[in-house]
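To whoever picks this up:

The parser on our side crashed when reading a file containing two proteins. I've narrowed it down to the boundary between the first structure block and the second sequence. Both blocks are reproduced below exactly, byte for byte. First block:
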Amino acid sequence: MNRNHDRLHRDEQDLRSVGMTELQTIYSDMGLTSDELDLLSVPRHSFTVSFPVKMTTGRTQIFTGFRVQYNDARGPAKGGIRFHPEMSAEHASELALLMALKCAVVNIPFGGAKGGVVVNPMDISRRDLELVTRGYIRAIADYIGPFKDIPAPDVYTDEQIMAWILDEYERIRREHVPAVVTGKPPELGGVLVRRYSTALGGVHVLEQALRERNMDFGGLRVAIQGFGNVGENAARILHERGCLVIALSDVNGGILDPKGLDIPAVMEHQKSTGSVVKFPGARELSNAELLMTDCDVLVPAALSNQLDANNARAVKAQFILELANAPTTAAADEILFERDVLLIPDILANAGGVVASYFEWSQNLSNDRWSEEKTLSRLQEIMISAYNDVGGRCRETRCRMRKAAYELALKRILHAEKLRGNL
């Protein structure tokens, strides 16, 4: 496994441990009954499949895949498919639970799922990747569907892989079923907003947080760690709204200009050189230094566990918008809360992606196409409503926003279970 795979694996392990540790504490604080704990402790459905694929070399190889539907009390299960050499059933189960919570936080009618295949996509050809994808879908076709479980892109999967999933599923069913998968190319029923919805959803909740404090985007100084799809779109959107994006970074390092970076020019530089570093006129800084930049808003949009007990007291930002998964440790979360830094947690801040997937699913079911204006308006409405729900609980219980988000999600899931007669 190369260095990027090692880093990704560590990041995923961190995400799981942070999420599960937080949940165990919240279960205790909420005083859940033994029945409630039992219901939340195991996934509703979990299965492992082994399937043969005749590769382009002529050799037949056996692959192992997983799919976990953790909870479907609020609606069909929803969650990504990832292709990764370290994929496991336990891994899928924990991430499926976190997905159920994320859907409940933004109050969309989905449960949580996750799945994938044990494969390193970088070790096989694109054609072989298609064959593996189709083999996996043939193996799980009876367990997914628009009213059962709706997959989506995740680690090392993309729009094209979702198109292969759609095509293979429709071949099996012998009918068009566009709502079986989201994150598809727009030509096959996907929505363009999906490509930048995670970043845009985060911007909407940040805007609401600012509005509560009689602030706006004009001249707001922002530092963004990570310049992948989410970080780049966040930088672009915030720049367009009048923010001064003063610091950016990627895996190679960061850049700083206190007067504000020219984001379109940085995007062109990154496209031509492969990195944001050495951008003309900007000072270089490390990823660690970026976290302590003198700014108003810090946006971790890269790896997990970036803010910890060692650097949380040095953070100068007034707001933290977690567009990455689990970028803040539990210890850092407490320190930042004590310092009155408003931390908008990942489970809320980066939920715009699944909201856009919900829109795609809804349109596919009705064979409809929403206008871009309607899609953007609905995304804003749902994200702001979710922020207000979490913020209200946070103020009511005087707790961290992350804890409020988890508690709200758990209450919604357990209420649905109670209405169904399961509690």
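<<boundary where parser fails>>
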Amino acid sequence: MNSKHYHKVQVGDVSVTMVSDGFFPANSDIFPDVDADRLKAALDVAGVHSDAPEEPPGGYESAVNGFIIETGGKVHLIDAGSAGMSPTLGKLTQNMAAAGYHPDQVESLIATHLHPDHIGGAAADGKAVFANAEMVLAAADHGFWTNEDIINGAPDDAKPYFMMANAALVAYSDRLRLIGDNDVVCLGVTSIALPGHTPGHTGFMVSSGNETLMIWADIVHQQDLQFDDPTVSLIFDIDAEQAMRTRQRVFDQVATDNQRIAGCHLRIPAVGHVERANESFRFVSEG
């Protein structure tokens, strides 16, 4: 099942639905070592052009995706979207409805990490948007975003990120489950530690029968740049060197294994495979 706003795939007996939260207008400013000309050239090669009126020249629309996991008769959600960080974002729950799901069905809200485009939609007015869900989160990310010394030492422009992370945590404080690497999150889903972007940045392997899908969260933010050059980092990477090493390792792994993957910032349908291309890689989308 495919639409402009969601894309449903099957992994054995498990249903996985990519749900769009929308997009945010982005440009080369978010990549420390990439100038506008290089980004524009990569977008031109890919035939990607933005129609967003607020888009700067040479910019693009950065997709923000969540994933609904339906397994064993229960519904789980990986990431909660952004709650409208820009007018083009905050569409997750309405797109969930279009795909046939309601927030009250969600039994587990599984956070890949605590950046605002992933958990901003978890709470509203101090209350949990997913009223019946526990929050599942890597202990390493919880420890980072709640550390008072780190919060107090953060630059002023980063403090709102900590505030939003902690607002989500407070809303689910009575039903918070902390996990590590290779933990069972729900039936058919296990965690994969992918540190660097944040200390507890986590992907998830969906397995059923002999089929698998790796939801790799934020391994890639800009597919026209980073598959070709995995060393491209993002200003939001907390440890850019570690994020780069993690990205290179994961690219090598999934290309070798022909592993089906899905990503939080890949363009719709956001599902496909990674192939080697000379000394680099390329993404082959299913749509």
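After patching the parser it read the second block fine. The chain is about 25% helix and 30% strand. The longest strand covers residues 14-26.
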